[in-house]
Design brief:
This protein has 365 residues and is of the alpha/beta class. It has 12 helices and 17 strands.
Length: 365
């Protein structure tokens, strides 16, 4: 047993202090970033924001909407080979921004091989494991790299800097997803006592991975996964050194989600009421609108039963909740962009890339 007394910080523990700025307007802020990778020969440019690859979030509609903003959607791992072939056979799908998610199995590798062979598209890959710290996960990522040498590979999750290093150096990973037990529908901390405050996790892992170089501008990169309850948390993640930021709850409830919806129906008096007030026949004949969406963690009992992954030896480490309808994801993305521009302006950064250099955190609690 060991006790670590150094304080670790979450997003809720800090604010960003304002700095002097020479900018004339927040519209002058450059949000787009350009990346090269430790292993993949590809170059990537865009807003480094990623939709969480959850089955209620990362569907085809989300992918199409986010690629218009040069943001990434790794399609959730429950897509069939046939659906992935259909999607990636469409030339309007940009593989820079629409990726494939796979689990930790040979069956998933076979799925990607089939998609690549049938479409001829050089897809990018997100490799998912709830616990990226187990030894064989690094070996699996190495196999993915050997079979898809030019793909951008993101894998995780990790909080331990030594594991993150291993995933890049030995596992062939370009981007390590960092974050344990921080998601809004994650209950790993409650169930297991395992966790790591997100800001410190990002700062420690980015410090280590950015020190790995495989040539000019080819660094190990990280993606913050979890803890973004508001747009300000996205700002904190970038300021804390994260190259990419993954969000789920902030996108939940938008039109482009593929989750389960609850509707309201128009009654004879011109008011919308819950569906419990109507018969099935009345529902078919009256106007309806979205009221809320079921948002659930991928380790929740609901998700495990839905995708036939429930095992008696596994505890549920997630939960589900209803999220109010938010409208188009376009509005959410514009709000995020506005928040990032304003944050950079307050912090004295001319670009999103510079935010980590100009940011000054104040510990508040």
């Amino acid at each position: 047993m060991k006790i670590e007394y150094d304080r670790k910080l979450g997003f809720e523990n800090v604010m960003l202090a304002p700095n002097r700025s020479t900018l004339q307007s927040r519209k002058d802020i450059t949000l787009e970033r350009k990346f090269e990778f430790y292993h993949s020969p590809k170059k990537w440019a865009g807003l480094p924001l990623i939709a969480a690859n959850m089955s209620s979030i990362a569907g085809e509609d989300m992918g199409r909407a986010l690629q218009a903003h040069k943001c990434i959607t790794p399609l959730h791992k429950y897509f069939s080979t046939e659906d992935l072939v259909r999607i990636f056979s469409d030339p309007s799908i940009n593989t820079d921004y629409v990726w494939v998610t796979i689990g930790f199995s040979e069956k998933d590798l076979e799925k990607v091989r089939n998609v690549v062979s049938e479409t001829g598209r050089n897809v990018n890959i997100s490799v998912e494991a709830a616990n990226g710290h187990i030894d064989k996960f690094c070996g699996f990522c190495y196999d993915v790299r050997q079979q898809f040498p030019s793909a951008i590979i993101m894998a995780g999750n990790s909080a331990c800097t030594e594991v993150s290093q291993e995933l890049v150096i030995r596992g062939g990973v370009d981007i390590v997803k960092c974050g344990i037990s921080q998601g809004s529908v994650c209950r790993t901390l409650n169930q297991t006592a395992i966790g790591f405050p997100q800001l410190s996790c990002l700062m420690e892992n980015s410090h280590v991975l950015h020190g790995l170089r495989n040539g000019n501008r080819r660094l190990g990169l990280i993606c913050s996964d979890g803890g973004c309850k508001e747009i300000g948390d996205i700002c904190r993640a970038y300021a804390g050194g994260s190259d990419f930021v993954m969000i789920g709850g902030l996108l939940a409830g938008t039109d482009e989600c593929c989750g389960e919806w609850e509707y309201e129906y128009l009654d004879p008096y011109g008011n919308y009421s819950s569906e419990d007030s109507f018969t099935d026949k009345e529902k078919e004949e009256t106007k309806k609108r979205k009221r809320c969406m079921k948002y659930y963690g991928m380790s929740s009992k609901y998700a495990q039963e839905k995708h036939d992954e429930f095992k008696n030896y596994r505890a549920s480490e997630g939960t589900e909740k209803w999220v109010d309808y938010k409208g188009s994801v376009e509005d959410t993305l514009n709000s995020i962009k506005g928040g990032l521009r304003s944050c950079c302006t307050y912090s004295g950064a001319h670009s999103l890339k510079d935010l980590n250099k100009t940011a000054k955190f104040i510990v508040v609690k």
